[in-house]
Amino acid sequence: MAKMKTGFPKDFLWGGATAANQIEGAYNEDGKGLSTADMVRFIPKSERNPGEHALDVTKKQINKILAGNVEEARFPKREGIDFYHHYKEDIALFAEMGFKTFRLSIAWSRIFPNGDDATPNEAGLAFYDQVFDECLKYGIEPLVTLSHYETPLHLTLKYNGWSDRRVIEFFTNYAETVFRRYKDKVKYWLTFNEINIIAISPYTGGGVLVEDAKNRLELCYQAAHHQFVASALATKLAHEIIPDAKVGCMLARMTTYPATNNPDDILKAQHLNQMNLFFTDVQARGEYPSYMDRYFTENNISIQKESGDDEILKEHTVDFISFSYYMSLSTSANPTGKQTGGNFMGGVKNEYLETSDWGWQIDPKGLRYTLNDFYSRYELPLFIVENGLGAYDKVTADGKIHDDYRIDYLRKHIEQMKEAIKDGVDLIGYTSWGPIDLISASTSEMSKRYGFIYVDKDDDGKGTLKRSKKRFLRLV
């Protein structure tokens, strides 16, 4: 009789997660081209329209920015926290916290400035060589995302990003380039960060402009199909070039509960969970699930596939499933109660849960539920690659940051991870989001802090960029 697992495995990958466009800065140094993230300006909360995402960008706005007709606008993701020049200091601090892995992304436009260039930018390749070498010096395993919320801007302006099938070839060329360059340094790879976000914010997820679209949903799901094929082809290339490589997909998991036992609420929650898990169904099972047939029909969505696409998806599924988990959601077929939200997600307020400074519902036990749900569905290894608490941190008179609330948040989620392992879930790693304070993906704020390391910078871009420890924390 098999024994119950009682703790984290010895080779468990503890660490932290970041994205190039939120930390690197140096947006125009050493040959880097512009990316879609470089066009996202900071909009103070007081100036946002109701329901407006700070991520929404149109072609008209891009042209104004490129023409220099946006006065006093700030683009925080161009600056990041200047990891480009502080990476040695930052990685040393990660090592001090006991990191076994560091999740980071490669900026595609740092390697191929336009995305469709014939040859790569050597200075960009050399930068990541140095970063990976620094990680390996401390025994930290790099976990690398190929595309994390940024697409070379040229691909958006010329091809409308991932809506154009030709971008598949540009992406696989990029993937092959970095696989060959870093084959002796990087074993763990992710293809697209939170791939489902392309259906919520197509500009963010795929560099797709939708203002002129006849059918917005169709455009988004067509772009997603191109990403599915590209992800499968990249997985194939990784396995060929790096025999021991492990390639994962990555989902923004939006576990949704029914608000009541009303069957209408239960059916709505089931539908929302299916729409979320559709993206991992394709990448882990290798085919489009039948429940999408009705959705596509009722929304006049026709996915254009080329001969061989279905075979590519089926033959090159991922090795593991990674996901972000910050909150659970609650839904009702007839919502009358208090609403809650995050930057992308809404729903009915769950009265059993506390909320963060940004209104996100804190649900540690929901993480255990999510892990069990994932594992029973796919029976593939799981990797939590984003989880953390965004909060307003206050610096006291003595220069300290007492973030016990963050430590409590992490402790409770880690406890539920351990329970899921006891349940039989194959969990291989955990990287907390933003181990060092960084620019918010959704609002471009600096005040939404996740880190164990404080960075002296504010929402207006002012500060020394000095790094300092918060309450000392080791994940192990």
From TrEMBL:
GO cellular component: cytosol
Record-annotated active site: E386
InterPro entries: GH, GH_1_N_CS, Glyco_hydro_1, Glyco_hydro_1_AS
UniProt cross-references to Pfam families, sorted A to Z: Glyco_hydro_1
A GO molecular-function descriptor: beta-glucosidase activity
Keywords in alphabetical order: Glycosidase, Hydrolase
Biological processes per GO annotation: carbohydrate catabolic process
Similarity annotation: Belongs to the glycosyl hydrolase 1 family.
Annotated NCBIfam families: PRK09593.1, PRK09852.1
Protein name, as recorded: Glycosyl hydrolase
Organism, scientific name: Listeria aquatica FSL S10-1188
